[in-house]
Design goal:
The protein has two domains: 16-133, no CATH class; 144-260, Cytidine Deaminase, domain 2. The radius of gyration is 23 Å and the shape is elongated. By secondary structure, the chain is α+β, with helices and mostly antiparallel strands. α2 (69-78) packs across α3 (87-97), α6 runs antiparallel to α7 and α8 (197-207) packs across α9. It has helices spanning 36-59, 69-78, 87-97, 100-105, 108-112, 119-140, 149-160, 197-207, 227-242, and strands at 167-173, 179-187, 211-217, 246-253, 258-260. The chain has a five-stranded mixed beta sheet with strand order 2-1-3-4-5.
Length: 267
Amino acid sequence: MRDGPANGRDGGAGPLFNTPAPAARKPARRKDAADPDGEERIRKQRQGHRDRLRRHFLKNLNNDGSMKDYELLELLLFGVFRQGDVQQLARDLLEKFGSIAGVLAADPQDLREVQGAGDAVVVIVKTAEKLGIELARKGAVSGELLNNYDAVIGYCRARMGRRPVEEFRILFLDSRNRLLRDERQTTGTINHAPAYPREVCKRALEIGAASVILVHNHPSGDPTPSRSDIELTRRIETAAKTLGIAVHDHLVVTRGEAFSFKAKGLL
C-alpha cells in the first residue's frame, strides 16, 4: 500500500471520513438555471437511501443472505464518502474484481484504476481485508493448530489464496503445536516460488520451532502440486528430520480450494 496524499479521484487529501463524493458520480446541473430546490431534493433522497441501507443492515445482522454484495460495498464506501451516490462505484469494483473477496484482495494500483477509487478507497478496502485475515488467524491459532485444522486451512486461504503470484510461507510451531511465528519466506512468479531447505531449517532453529507447516499458493486456481512441489517437500522433510524438526504438512491453497500433502499421503 502506498502512503501519501490522495490522487484526487476520491476527493483529494484530508481526513478519511470527510472525503467528498467522486465528481463523476454527481448529477448534472441544469445549464439554463440554478436549481437549489432540486439539488436539495436529490441530497435528501441520497441520505434517505443511506439511512435505509444502514437500518436494513442492522436489522439483518444475523441473516447472511439479506444484503447484496454491492450493498455491502456501499456501506463500506460510506466511510470514505460523507455524501453522494456510491452505488455505481460499488458496482464498478465488483464488475472489475468479480466478488467482494476479489475487491478486498485486489492490488492497490488495480483499485486505483477504477473511476472514483483513490487512496482513501484503497485504505478502507485494504483495512477491511486485513481485519478479515486477522479474524481468520485468531480462529486458527487458538490452541493447538492440528486440533483446528479446518481453521488453519481457512486462514491460509484468506492470507494468500488470492495472491496474483506464488508465495511460500511457513507456520512455525512449538512442541505443543502452538503457533510461534507465521512468516513469508519468498515471493515468486505466477507459477513458481523458490524455497530452500537449508533456509527453512535455519529459520526454524533460530525461532526454536519443534515443527513446521509449509504453505504456498497457486494463482492458477488448481491446488494440485507439481513434481517440483513434491520433490521440494521431500527435501525439506529430510533436512528437517536430521535436526529433529517435524514437517506436519505442506498446504497448497487457492482462492477456493486447498491441497494437503498429509491428507493425500505425500507426507
